[in-house]
Amino acid sequence: MSFSAREVLSISDQGSTVRKFVWFIAILFTLFVGGIFAAPSVIDWSQYKGQLTSKFVEFTGRDLSIDGPLDVTLWPSPTLVANKITLANSPSGHAPKIAVLKAVELRVALLPLFLGRVHVKTVKLIEPIIELEKFVDGQTNWTFAKIQRKAEKKHTFVPTPDKNQGINAPEIAFDNFVIENGIITYRDMVDRRIERAEQVNATITATSIKGPAETSGSLILRGIPIEYTASIGQLIQNRTVPINADIKLGSGSIFAELSGTLVNLNTPLFKGKIGVEGRDLRDILKQSSIRVPHLSRELPIKLSGSVSASTEAVSLNEIRVDVAGIRATGDVEVDLTSPTRFGAIVAIKQFDLNELLTTFKSTNPQADNQKKQYTFTQTTKSSKPAKNKNTPIVSTKRTAAQVFAMPKNFEGSIILTTDAIGYRNGVIRDLAINAELTKGELSIGQISAQLPGGSDAILSGRLSTDDKLPKFTGNVEATINDFRAIAAWLGVSLPPLPTDRLRKIIFNANLVATPEQVQATGVNFRFDSSTIQGSLTLARRKRIGLGVAVVLDRLNIDAYLAQTTSTRKTLRTKGLVQKNSASNEQKHNATRSKAPTSNDPFAVLNALSSFDANFNVHVKSLIYGGVPVKDLVTEGTLNNGNLDLRRFSIGSLAEATANISGRLSELTSFPSVENLSFGISIPNVNSVLTLAGERLPINTKKLGTIVLKGQMYGNLISPSLNAAISMAGAKIKFDGRLSPLSSTGVLSGKTSFTHRNLRSFLRRLDFNYRPSRKIGRVELKTKFKAGKNIFHFSELSGFIGQTKVSGEITANFLPAKPHITATLKTGVLNIEKFLPAQKNAGIPNFSPQLIPAAWLFPMGNDDYSLPHLRNVKLSHWSTSPLSLSALNEFDALINLESDKLVYRQLIARNSNINAEISGGILNLSRFQARLFGGTVLSTANINVGNNSIRAQANMRGLSVGSLLQTTTGKQSAKGKMDADFNINTSGTSISALVEKLGGKARFNISAIDVNNAAEGSVLASIFDLLQALNRLAGISTDKKAHIGASFNVMSGIATTRDLRLASLAGDGSAGGEIDLSNWTINLKGEITVAETLLTSLLKERVRGLGRAIPFTIMGSLEEPNVRINTGTVFNSGASIPNADTLLNKAPKSVRRILRGILQGPQQQNQRSSNNPQLSPSKRSKDEKSQQISPERLLKQLFKL
Hints:
two-stranded antiparallel ribbon
């Protein structure tokens, strides 16, 4: 489509006209609107202040004054500003104005007005000063009476507009309600309390008049800066408003949250929840006006719960608080009506009291000094309380604490529970307090707690103040599972008791207590494993009165003594009197030095004069010093320092019984005993001595029952005592004095002792020493003096078995081992009876025997061997352990003189023995006696520590005949012997002692006269060799010979190189070894036969007879084999021709010897014919009497 130019211009003119019209309309509208917004600025709105204030008075009943200008503007939004506004207070108010504002500014949104809605953008209160007050009658100054009436009328008679109605009330919304730099003061005339909030700044935003709304702001309350934000929900049915708030306290270390609803605005009731959390309360406390002690560390807090508050009651429910480690939950209700009642249920989770105490430190030095000086001083005759203004004085007069009355116009109850309280490294658990105050009487339903160690305590009852005198009637129960832990926890020092004692304590009783008297009935007191039942009464008067009637079921006193378990075991095991260690003694001395010293040994008895008592105490079971005591009953009366003991009995004291009755008088001066009789039966005396801290060094159970009867009378320091005792089969009588305070002797007097069998008595005394033989009856009389650890017997006389004894003995049990000193003289003393019984060494016959060599086998000159002598190993010595421990049991110093000491066949006359046993070493310093017609002087030393023995002896002039008669039963030889030896050895058995034997020995026997074979003795082989020489030489056996040798002993082997034999028949020498350990001998030597008639006859027939003849002695010392090598003298083929002629030519004495020799081969051949190995079948019988070889002849001559 196309247009012409004319058409185009026409269209352009028409558009220009339309634009001009539009602009005209726009300018008119702008002038109209601008006039509307500019018009209020030229209106004087102050002329309407009177109408505005009158309307306010009409609605509130309070005078409103606007003293400043009133401004209204419509642009950019409608705004109303009023300056210097005051609102009158209630006529009863403390301040004349309830509110004073510098200015009020109201700003609304323009556009919502055209839509029929009111949108208040800002309501600002600038520097308001608000006075809120609660009057004495409970009314408040912010309650507007006329508003209440119109509200009630509107609420009652005006129906709620229906949603179908055409006209509705305009909707009102709030954006901001602002308070700038305000001051709010609250006065509570009921509690006479004033709170003031300064620098209040707040902003409130509401969507409508019914909410919801939000607010935030800050203020300073009690010097504490507070910042908050809150939201208020929509008003529900004109009576319920939801509220939520967040609050920051101080410098931001504490935060709080509050949420809930405000119900019934006319009689407001707030219900909601509160929560507080902060890392440190110190900032808040420092900035507040609250006066608190110095806080040394951070004080965190956490709180939550439900709140319900009205003008008549306040209720806090489900409160949870955590302050400085203290966690508490509970409910609190207070009824503010008259009479005031309260009820509280509080549960504390746990807290550390130590930290709490260290957190709060007083900043007032004067208060600290007062606490240090605040002590109670007991009034006594010898001391007066210090006159210090900070120290209360205790007197017998009624004090303010004794005379008081509880209030009757105040009632309430409290239930407080605490799960755990940490204090002094311990925990108090489940603390519960339940009490109620009603009509001036406090009913304690329960005060209970679980203390450290699993302990708990409960107290219940009622406290009344009749006649203004307090009286408690109730019941107490306590269970302490570890009392020592409780004491240590509280820092209380207890006596030195074992740590496992006083653990378990259970106590319950009915109590009636007044300031004058305390009574406990139905007492049931259990500690550890003991129970006390009965009743107690304590009366306060000039002389304290005490009434006790109790039964104790069991008590182990040993378990409460300071003595250690190891010491008790040592005493029981060793049976020795043990003293306290040096450290214990020092502790004892230190404790004793702190206590008041007194020279009065009966100070304890003097203490009995300070009170009077009636007592009846029954202990069913008691243990002291390891001694069980059953049915211990004591009954009597203590009056003015005199004790009438009607009964003191023991039903069983380690199966012992006792009955004592009598009177103790003059306890305050010189106590004495009057007609005190006793009868005691004691199966175990150590159990009784342990009661006195003493102990006998024996197993007293082996003593059997000890029966003691007697009487005691006289001054208690050293009363006379007549007693008779029977124990272990012995009868002991005593007549003397008892001196318990003497330092030299507890008992002194004359005593006698009889027993039918000493061996049995020693065994029952538990001595390690056991005599090997029955000794027999013992009858002794002596003067006796016994100290605490020393027993001395003087002028001792009597018989031990058949041995007469006299002298004196002292036994000291004070050292670690008993020490015995004895000086005795005896008649005939058979030592074997008194030697300790032990196994023999295993040597049935100590003396070896020389067995004649029969030579039944063909033998060569030098190369023969005896298979049965190879690898000889004989068990002659016992390998059983050799115990020398008896020497460790005691120390001793012994001097013994005896007319005759007898040991088996040995008899030592005029013996004198001096010996000392010390530290397990027996030192025999002297043994001198006459033995085998000669003298013996020896010393010895036995050491238990290394089981070593050293001995030295010199013997002179011993009769060989007597020696052989004693050892073999035959006097096979005569002569005199001198001998010396010095040996040493060590080992734990006889075999070991012999194996390690070392030293030197020598002997010399002169004037030997050999009559018969000396079988069974060590010298048998030598004596038989002498007898063979005599036979060979054809000399008489009464000719004397001499033998001597010396030995070096090492490792149980005696070696000699100088054995010499000299006789008229010939001389011999030998050397070799005697193995004492294996009990074998190996000697080699040679014999040179002296020229006699017989040897002369043989020389005529045989050449070379004058040469020395070798011999050997080998084998067991009991049955040695003797070999004489005659092959070195004769050729094996030589013979003696015409033996019958030789026999006839010999002298009569020699002929008799040769006849026996020549007949010997015939008999030998006859015996040998029965053995095909020893008699060849080709041997002719007629050769027996024709000739004999010289070798066989000599062998027959040497044959024994």
